[in-house]
């Protein structure tokens, strides 16, 4: 079964074509800078392109700069690249057997991956207000694919569903309970697809049953989430009703006194929509540093003596460290600390800042290993009671696995009923 995995973000579409159940990646790529005249299409091919005379090779890369009007245009460009007569890896859309979509917010109604139906899409629309940067492009991606491939089954895999195992005392907010009853206002949590991969991979690397491990997961990218994982399930998570709560993020504020919001609204005459924009798009390390939402540029500014850039880095690391301690307390200990995401995987400085001072928890960092060029690696000392791992995330393979399972079961059911 050839499965197209789509991850539609605010300004980009990431895609991957996977042959299942072999889990063989045929091609992957992205369309960046959606809505811009200088959008960028990238495609990496892992087998000989059709029509090639032998000059192509595994890992061949194609890159083009061109206008990308919207997510619909981006998805069409991705599909055209995959089916290109010279460089593509399939002849037509009909060779795609299923599409797996990453979806951020499914609330309490979507507690696991689901075959896409009109009812599922309607639920996703209900959560536009709670995940404004993600659910709208997620739904647009589904609808574009439905128009282009109307007979192809599609599956929605949710970032929020993993955390439906949180106990009520962990997901309940201390506001009048009627708001939960009326609007389902509660902690939901996100990055669940990544945490599924991280925890399973950690157990494999350590050759221990996942159910026996107490794991603190740190997904540190432009979006950031911490997760406490015990007895094989998520028991707490830093992101909440929306992805904005929790750790300091690239443009999201993370935890703040809620009355900061109403105070600023009164002082500045800010309406709710504008306040949402400030908290989601102008805060985080961008808001503190005033430099960039790209942490690499914040580091460059700090190295050049920019005090606010250094403050942004220190605040980010400090707040993350606090969550490690809190989740160790919540689980009654910690066996494994896992870093993932663009920052978690590539920034030894951030990893060191977070681990520094946590020796009392049994976390002893091997600084040489932390600085080593390896991608997936152990960075704790040999005598460290707590294993510290760096595990590059692979959300796409999780989505592909769920899509394959659900579509296979659906097709088997149709055959039985037929």
* CATH overall fold name of the largest domain: Nucleotidyltransferase, domain 5
Q: pLDDT below 50 for ≥5 consecutive residues: which ranges?
A: 51-57
- Rg, Å, rounded: 22 Å
Distance between the termini: 21 Å
Summed over residues and divided by their number, the pLDDT gives a mean of 92
- The succession of helices and strands, N to C, reads EEEEEHEEHHEHHHEEEHHHHHEHHHEEH
Bin the helical content: 25-40%
Describe the structure.
- This protein has 418 residues and is of the alpha/beta class.
- The chain folds into two domains: 160 residues, Nucleotidyltransferase, domain 5 (2-Layer Sandwich); 190 residues, ATPase, nucleotide binding domain (Nucleotidyltransferase, domain 5, 2-Layer Sandwich), CATH 3.30.420.
- It has 15 helices and 14 strands.
- Strands 5-4-3-2-1-6-8-7 form an eight-stranded mixed β-sheet, with helices on both faces.
- It is globular and about 60 Å long.
């Amino acid at each position: 079964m050839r499965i197209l995995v789509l991850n539609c973000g605010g300004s980009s579409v990431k895609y991957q074509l996977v042959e299942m159940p072999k889990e063989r990646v045929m091609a992957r790529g992205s369309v960046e800078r959606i809505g811009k005249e200088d959008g960028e299409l990238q495609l990496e091919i892992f087998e000989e392109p059709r029509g090639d005379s032998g000059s192509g090779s595994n890992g061949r890369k194609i890159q083009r700069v061109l206008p990308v009007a919207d997510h619909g245009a981006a998805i069409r460009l991705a599909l055209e690249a995959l089916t290109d007569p010279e460089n593509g890896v399939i002849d037509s859309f009909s060779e795609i057997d299923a599409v797996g979509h990453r979806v951020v917010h499914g609330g309490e109604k979507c507690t696991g991956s689901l075959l896409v139906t009109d009812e599922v899409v309607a639920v996703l629309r209900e959560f536009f207000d709670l995940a404004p940067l993600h659910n709208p492009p997620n739904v647009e991606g589904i609808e574009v694919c439905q128009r282009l491939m109307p007979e192809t089954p599609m599956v929605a895999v949710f970032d929020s569903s993993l955390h439906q195992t949180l106990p009520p005392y962990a997901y309940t907010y201390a506001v009048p309970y009627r708001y939960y009853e009326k609007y389902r206002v509660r902690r939901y949590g996100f990055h669940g697809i990544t945490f599924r991969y991280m925890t399973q991979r950690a157990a494999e690397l350590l050759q221990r049953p996942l159910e026996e491990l107490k794991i603190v997961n740190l997904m540190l990218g432009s979006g950031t989430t911490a997760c406490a994982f015990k007895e094989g399930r998520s028991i707490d998570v830093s992101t909440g009703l929306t992805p904005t709560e929790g750790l300091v993020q690239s443009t999201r504020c993370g935890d703040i006194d809620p009355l900061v919001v109403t105070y600023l609204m009164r002082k500045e005459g800010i309406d709710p929509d504008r306040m949402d924009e400030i908290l989601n798009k102008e805060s985080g390390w961008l808001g503190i540093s005033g430099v960039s939402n790209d942490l690499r540029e914040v580091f460059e500014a700090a190295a050049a003596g920019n005090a606010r850039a250094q403050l942004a880095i220190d605040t980010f690391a400090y707040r993350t460290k606090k969550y490690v301690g809190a989740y160790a307390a919540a689980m009654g200990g910690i066996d494994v600390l896992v870093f993932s995401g663009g920052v978690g995987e590539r920034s030894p400085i951030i990893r060191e800042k977070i681990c520094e001072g946590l020796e009392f928890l049994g976390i002893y960092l091997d600084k040489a290993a932390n600085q080593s060029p390896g991608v997936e690696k152990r960075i704790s000392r040999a005598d460290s009671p707590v294993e510290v791992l760096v595990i590059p995330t692979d959300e796409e393979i999780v989505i592909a696995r769920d899509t394959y399972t659900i579509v296979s079961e659906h097709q088997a059911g149709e055959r039985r009923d037929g």
